[in-house]
Amino acid sequence: MQNNSIAYGFLAPALLVMTLCGVIPLAFVAFYSVHDTFAGNNFVWVGSTWFQQVLTSPDFYAALARSLGFSLLVLAIEIPLGIYIALRMPARGLLSSFYIILMAIPLLTPTIVVGYIWQVLTLPQVGLLTAGAASLGLDYDMTNPVIVWMTLALMDTWHWTSFVVLLCFAGLRAIPDDYYRAAHIDGASGWAIFRFIQLPKLRFALLLAILLRFMDSFIIYTEAYVVTRGGPGVSTTFLSHELVQTATVQFDLGEGGAISVIYFLIVLCVSWAFFTLIVPGGPGGSANTKVGPS
Fold it and tell me: pLDDT by residue for the chain (294 residues), tens digit each?
């Protein structure tokens, strides 16, 4: 009992910070979502009115579809690419340490800096990407929605693939050498080793990578806003941009609060679904991972 008290004592500062930075702001957002405001501080209860307005708005569903589409696009690129790079990295030695440091550089770059870097790269005529495309006879037109989406996907891939690489690299290093020795004795091919040993052992690392990358890409705001401002048109106006536009520009606190609550519930449900798969022995998890055919 005394040990538990000490443990809770050490956790208390973290819980206090989480309460101040997370729970209290969320409570205020939930309050706004069921009230209308007049003259700044006069709040009137409106119940589910704002939620009904949001859930019947075509703009909300369009922004949600763009956010989900962007998340699926970058996951489809970064997860396979991260696995491939992790498999090709040297397992030990000075070169391995060098690659790990190299992979950490994009992760340490602030999101707003990433946005401005790629904004400069795509400047007309003088940007590295536009000039390089022009030298090849191609038109890198940032008013083309397809080009803009490709740019955002490339930017996100540069920034976050290293995260997937490091998770997969750590998972691969945790596989005992006995598995590989047994596979070589059995004459297993490289593909068989990957399919029946490496990939099953990477299951939890990959689930964690998919969860965290989905959450981050689904709520992307800063980088995309700096590069595209939501354009051309509304082609890159994601749900985060719609929320900021509603709550801070139009100052519709009630509607903005409703969007925030719905946004939060979507992320929470996806996180819970992955949590049940990641935690061993959980509702969707398993303490034992199958590593070969039966």
Answer: 556 677 777 788 888 888 888 888 888 899 999 988 876 678 889 989 999 999 999 999 999 999 999 999 999 999 999 999 999 998 888 888 898 999 999 999 999 999 999 999 998 888 888 988 888 888 888 889 999 999 999 999 999 999 999 999 999 998 888 998 899 888 888 899 999 999 998 988 999 899 999 999 999 999 999 999 888 989 999 999 999 999 888 888 899 999 999 999 999 998 888 888 777 554 444 444 443 443
Q: What is the pTM of this model?
A: 0.86
Closest CA to 28 of 261, 265, 268: 261
Report yes or no on 14 lying in a domain: no
Determine the structural domain holding residue 210 and report its residue range.
57-278
Note whether residue 23 is domain-resident.
no
